[in-house]
Design a protein that fits this description.
Blueprint lengths: L14 H12 L8 H13 L3 E7 L14 E8 L11 H17 L1 E8 L2 E9 L6 E8 L6 H10 L20 E2 L3 H13 L3 H16 L3 E8 L2 E7 L10 H14 L4 E3 L4 H10 L3 E7 L8 E7 L4 E2 L1 H25 L2 H17 L4 H19 L1 E13 L3 E5 L4 E6 L6 E2 L4 E5 L2 H26 L3 H26 L2 E3 L4 E5 L2 H4 L3 E2 L4 E6 L5 E7 L11 E6 L2 E19 L5 E9 L12 E12 H17 L2
């Protein structure tokens, strides 16, 4: 609108007429004569405003003929019939523009109150879509104060209408109207789609919104499954028959776009031309949608009426918005599918992730674990019952003190080999010698008294003396027998297994106190203890091995000969059962009764999984009383 152009004013239309007028403007180019005046008139009615100015910022150096020094050019305007509308921006309007422009450029709109010629007003500045900076300055009366937020929202909803650019598939200058969906409008549509709670509603909101923003007769959305597109939604259609030839043609057109970079035009794919002929719409294009540097996940198809097109920047913004809402649509689609299909897809994705080239070590561990599980389920191992063992022999003798006294000397200690008759210890005999002398003196005295009574024919006194002599002789015999036991000697060749020289030397002892225990080395066998839980696993005449603590490198073969059926309690180890086993090799010279070690008894072949888990399973059965 130039300075000499008259202002364009329209009468107040009804709501339907206003919507139709705005829809008609959406299909026109902002470069057409009178576009901005009609847009301002519609915006004035939409916002119940007194006046509307449409102003664009210009560069005085680039366009000196259009610049008036203020940096703003009046593109169009509309006003109530009773208000003047000049062909240039007046000082008051320019001041409002300059005050509101920075905030409107940042937030999309800006509002401020003012008083003009004694009238309280509000000036609302709304940033318009397009590459050129354009503002709509709306003058709202005081009576609309309570509706300011609503009116500002209305103005922003139509801020994307003045699109500019050349249509796809048409050369610049052909006069074909181009739709250029703006980023704010697309973001608003994306927000609307994100708010939907159902997949069908979200898909329909997307295609209907894109059809409105692009001026398309039809917009279709298809999902990509296994490299093929499957139609999911068509604008303005709640339902469609997926088995028709037309739907198959739409899906084939989408398939063509999956392998094409950018937007696929009708002149690049015969299937698009056939689809356009079937629909009676000459302008048909399709494009694949998906993550950056990833395979396409969906496809969009646009069918536009004759004389319409969508410019390249607009389609690029559409692609970006579709990629933004695609995860939400995919989530809703996945949520509404049958649970079996969801489980299948989740398993497929998991397997694809695990079988891909990443996470090498976790995969190697998982494969190894799987192989081990299979091995454990079918393989067998030789199972062995573990216990403790001790060398023992039945040829032992306890050497005790023959009388009360004190050990005068001790010649050996435990572990020493001794010969038969070898002196081991000697008891103190001084007191016994005194008793022997006393008893011997009494024997002689009572014998003399008996002889004297016999000579005097005193038969009664003779009998008394004779009886006392016999008593003294018996006492003397006991003392001499005790003296004979003063020396403790080895009864046979063997090994001292109990008794220490340092403990016995000078120690007082009573009759029967143990001094030494001596054992024969020959006839050694093994006494083994095994836990109560393993007793049922030990077969009769089972074989095994003994490893002594003193020689862990040597394995001594065993064979179980007897099981003692009485349990013994060994502290925290619980009940233990005793086994008697014979050694299958001759005893070594250095073996001694009492030597201990570890015993392993063969219990036959068992499943590997059972070997690894049977103790835990038994505990669980006891706890849970299976």
């Amino acid at each position: 609108m130039g300075a000499a152009d008259p202002p364009h004013t329209l009468g107040a239309p009804d709501a339907l007429g206003l919507v139709q007028a705005l829809q008609a403007l959406r299909r026109r180019s902002s470069g057409e004569p009178g576009f901005w005046d009609e847009y301002a008139a519609g915006l004035r009615h939409l916002c119940r405003a007194r006046r509307v100015w449409i102003a664009g910022r210009v560069d005085a150096a680039a366009e000196p003929a259009l610049a008036d020094g203020s940096g703003w050019q009046l593109l169009g305007g509309a006003a109530e019939a009773a208000l003047p509308m000049a062909g240039v921006i007046d000082a008051a309007t320019l001041a409002s523009l300059q005050a509101l422009a920075p905030r409107a450029a940042d937030k999309g709109f800006a509002l401020m109150p003012l008083t003009h010629e004694g009238v309280a007003l509000f000036h609302l500045a709304v940033r318009q879509a397009g590459e050129r900076p354009v503002l709509a300055l709306i003058e709202i009366p005081q009576r609309e104060r309570a509706s300011l937020n609503e009116l500002a929202l209305r103005a922003q909803l139509v801020a994307d209408m003045p699109g500019v650019g050349a249509p796809v598939g048409a050369a610049v200058g052909e006069g074909v109207p181009a739709a250029s969906p703006t980023l704010p409008a697309l973001l608003a549509l994306a927000t609307e789609v994100q708010r939907e709670a159902h997949g069908s509603a979200a898909r329909l909101a997307l295609v209907n919104g894109l059809a409105a923003l692009c001026g398309a007769s039809h917009v279709a959305l298809g999902w990509v499954d296994e490299g093929r597109a499957q139609l999911a939604a068509i604008s303005h259609l709640d339902r469609f028959d997926a088995g028709t030839d037309l739907i198959a043609l739409v899906e084939a057109a989408m398939d063509e776009s999956l392998t094409h970079e950018g937007v696929l035009q009708a002149d690049q794919a015969p299937v698009l031309q056939r689809l356009g002929e079937a629909l009676g719409l000459p302008a048909v294009c399709a494009m694949a949608i998906g993550p950056e540097n990833g395979p396409p996940e969906a496809a969009l198809l646009f069918a536009l009426p004759e004389g319409r097109g969508v410019d390249e920047p607009g389609l690029a913004r559409v692609r970006g918005m579709a990629a933004l809402v695609l995860p939400r649509l995919a989530e809703l689609r996945q949520r509404e599918r049958w649970w079996g299909l969801r489980a299948r897809d989740a398993l497929r994705l998991r397997l694809a992730s695990w079988l891909g080239p990443r996470h090498v070590w976790p995969k190697a561990v998982a494969v190894a674990a799987g192989l081990f599980v299979l091995y454990a389920a079918f393989a067998t191992w030789d199972y062995r019952v573990h216990g403790t063992g001790q060398l023992a022999t039945d040829s032992t003798r306890v050497l005790a003190a023959g009388y009360d006294g004190r050990v005068d000397s001790a010649e050996t200690s435990a572990g020493e080999r001794v010969q038969s008759g070898q002196l081991l210890a000697t008891l103190d005999t001084r007191e016994l010698r005194q008793q022997e002398n006393d008893a011997d003196a009494e024997v002689r005295r009572f014998g003399a008294e008996a002889d004297k009574a016999r000579a005097a024919a005193a038969w009664a006194e003779m009998e008394v003396s004779t009886a006392r002599q016999r008593q003294a002789q018996a006492r003397l015999a006991r003392v001499r027998e005790a003296l004979a036991q003063a020396e403790v000697r080895a009864p046979f060749d063997g090994v001292i297994v109990e008794g220490e020289r340092k403990d016995l030397l000078g120690a007082p002892v009573k009759k029967g106190d143990k001094l030494f225990r001596i054992a024969r080395v020959e006839g050694l066998y093994v006494v083994a203890t095994v836990p109560e839980g393993d007793m049922p696993l030990v077969p009769a005449q089972a074989s095994g091995e003994l490893v002594l603590v003193s020689d862990p490198d040597r394995r001594i073969p065993l064979r179980v000969t007897a099981v003692i059926p009485v349990a013994q309690t060994k502290g925290q180890d619980g009940n233990q059962f005793l086994l008697r086993a014979e050694m299958q090799q001759p005893a070594a010279d250095w073996w001694r009764p009492g030597m201990s070690g570890a015993v392993r008894i063969d219990a036959g072949e068992r499943n590997v999984a059972w070997i690894l888990t049977h103790r835990l399973v038994d505990k669980l059965r006891l706890w849970l009383w299976w």
